[in-house]
């Protein structure tokens, strides 16, 4: 496997895979889309379950490497293209905080978000993976107040992950539209890469809905 191998992104529009596609654009990475119509249930068919048994996107294939899980994909891709400047090097003092905030997304933010969305009673603080919703979000707010990005003045792949997540979750009322969150999301969603992919997603989602008879 070489860096020049094209990356295959298993993709469906207006899903968590959108952020991965934006990251690929920001990295200038060579990639191809393997598009799944999730409105037609293609992600639950045997062909894709052989790629990801959970039937979730994104997933990527790079040479012989198959990577699922959004957080792992971001780390893998940003490290694969260090010249893009979106990942701190292993000997950079920012590397630890960078990994912390990427892991925080999958380990704390998403579980808290799902509990809130489903109106689930959260686990006791001593057993919850995210303590409690307010504390989880408060830690993010405190970090972003140091801004303009998670690690200060320099944007990383973590900011693409979080900026797009904040944009979506504020849109659906899962995260309050505080100025610090709104300004942060705008820094990412106003970038040309996001604008291109967002427009392409709108068009693709319309085609998928029509094909699925939705």
From TrEMBL:
One of its GO terms (molecular function) is transferase activity. Signal peptide: none annotated. The keyword Transferase applies. Residues 4-85 form the GST N-terminal domain. Keywords: Transferase. InterPro entries: Glutathione-S-Trfase_C_sf, Glutathione_S-Trfase, Glutathione_S-Trfase_N, Thioredoxin-like_sf. PANTHER family: GLUTATHIONE S-TRANSFERASE FAMILY PROTEIN, GLUTATHIONE S-TRANSFERASE-RELATED. This is Glutathione S-transferase family protein. It comes from Bradyrhizobium archetypum.
